[in-house]
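Let's practice the habit of predicting before peeking. Look at the sequence and jot down your guess about where helices and strands might fall. Then scroll down.
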Amino acid sequence: MSRRMICHGRGWTDLVLVSILVFAVCGSQVAMAAETTPRDASKYYRITNGSVDSKTYNGYRRYHASCNHCHGSDGLGSTFGPALIDRLPEIAAFRDIVLNGKSDGSSVMRGFAKDPNIEPYIDDIYAYLQARADGVLGRGRPSRQQ
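Done guessing? Here is the structure:
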């Protein structure tokens, strides 16, 4: 660096500003690369560095406490209830089915309106199933973000 730049202070100021700019751009790129799920408003889950957000983790817990008995482990279905990750309905239809039940020929699902273990957590359960249906979350207990 020339003596003139140091004396006027612009050389160091410019160097510091450029360094900050480079750091900010690189840091944001790393943060964006770590995020594995899109920031799409229609997605109810967030997965970062292989770990799910608390809502999706809670959905996993609620699903396995109440839903897997009929719909199978990890939403894969059973002889009793259909797979949920093959054709997951839109959120409004999902809420309606879970709350009010559904009857389709000889297959009947009772509604869970007023069930304190399900009704308040429908969107969490949906977040878990949506991540499974999208193929961004594998089988088994997911890792939870801290």
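How did you do? Residues 99 and 113 are 4 Å apart (CA to CA).
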